Amino acid sequence: MAGALIAFFLVAYASDIRVFFQAFSIGIQSGWIQIKHDFNSWIDHHMAQTRRIEHLEKEVAFWQRRSLACQSDAAAYRAMASALKLQKDFNVSMTAVAALGYVTPGNFQKIWIENFADYDFRRNYGVVRSGYAVGIVVSQERRPMMILGGDSSCSFAVYVGSGRAPGIAIGEDARHMQVRYIPEWMKIRPGDEVMTSGLDHIFPIGVPVGKVLSIRRQEGYKIAHILLYGDTLHPNFVWVVRPSTTVIR
């Protein structure tokens, strides 16, 4: 009896049941398609965010590098501006050059410098930093080599004191030079200013060098021990002075 009733029910409502299951199946398919679409959209959005984050990270890294480069350039500019400032208008031909590196490790007073316009390996040049004479440029293997005032092979002509006693400044250490061959009869004293004489055609006349600390006599001459005004340990940028006899005082 029950089986007959079920059979009757199925026959009577077969079309409705088929419609129900079709609608149910379509609903499931639509739901799955929507879920799949939403999932794919989420994946696409996530991938787009990931790519955006990667792009932003690259941009941040790029600007960090640019920032460091700008900071380095700014530091180099400040160092150059400080090194190349002049305390007087020397009115002579001068070229700003950069140091390249030490000739010999451990010797901070001999440094290769970059080539500069009209460089002539047969001539010597003066080196000015912050308005002070600090060394010379000579040729080494036809390359310009800077020898600073702390090296004994650095020498140039100077005047000492108001009486302009002539002498030759010779390197001693990073802060000091000796002025030798000062005529014994000429009066000089501690505290006297030392300036270039220009008579060796390395510097123009009147570039400040240092001041006298002490004086001694030796073999008919006076020797003045002087304190250098200029910094010989940080010559990243310097002025190279072309040989000149121009009077600047």
Description:
By secondary structure, the protein is an alpha+beta fold. It has two domains: 2-81; 94-241, Rod shape-determining protein MreC, domain 2 (Thrombin, subunit H, Beta Barrel). Helices cover 33% and strands 34% of the residues. The chain has two helices and twelve strands; from the N terminus they run ααββββββββββββ. The protein has helices spanning 2-12, 14-84, and strands at 94-102, 110-113, 125-129, 132-140, 143-148, 155-160, 165-173, 176-183, 193-196, 208-218, 221-228, 237-241. A six-stranded antiparallel β-barrel has the order 1-2-5-4-3-12. A six-stranded antiparallel β-barrel has the order 6-7-8-11-10-9. Strand 1 (94-102) and strand 2 form a beta hairpin.
Could you name the key traits of this structure?
249 residues, alpha+beta, Thrombin, subunit H, 6-stranded antiparallel β-barrel, 12 strands, 34% strand, rod-shaped, disordered C terminus
Mind sketching the topology for me?
Elements: H1 2-12, H2 14-84, E1 94-102, E2 110-113, E3 125-129, E4 132-140, E5 143-148, E6 155-160, E7 165-173, E8 176-183, E9 193-196, E10 208-218, E11 221-228, E12 237-241
Short description:
With 249 residues, the protein is of the alpha+beta class.
CATH C-level category of the largest domain: Mainly Beta
Low-pLDDT runs of 5+ residues are 245-249
| Count of distinct structural domains | 2
**What form results from the Cα inertia axes?**
rod-shaped
Q: What distance separates the N and C termini?
A: 136 Å
Based on CA atoms alone, the radius of gyration comes out at 42 Å
Average pLDDT, rounded to a whole number, is 79
Beta-strand portion reads 25-35%
User: Could you state the oligomeric state of the chains shown?
Assistant: single chain
The CATH superfamily of the largest domain is Rod shape-determining protein MreC, domain 2
**Helix percentage range:** 25-40%
